[in-house]
Design a protein that fits this description.
By secondary structure, the chain is mainly α. The chain has one domain. Helices cover 76% and strands 0% of the residues. Helix 3 packs across helix 4. The longest helix is centred in the C-terminal third of the chain and has 24 residues. The N terminus is likely disordered.
Amino acid sequence: MAVAACSDDGGSVDSFAADRKAAEAAVAECDAGRRTRSCDAAREGLAEARRRDREDLYRQAH
């Protein structure tokens, strides 16, 4: 049972970057006071998703 207690409770930066809605939901929960090991990953993943969106817009414009 100790392994389950130490298991990751969310996702990786890559998984959050690939699923922006999940990242936004996780970040909102973290901002509301929930503290998990995946809060940092969610924030980084959301930042990466936003960076990718900006890059896509830039490529479309040029």
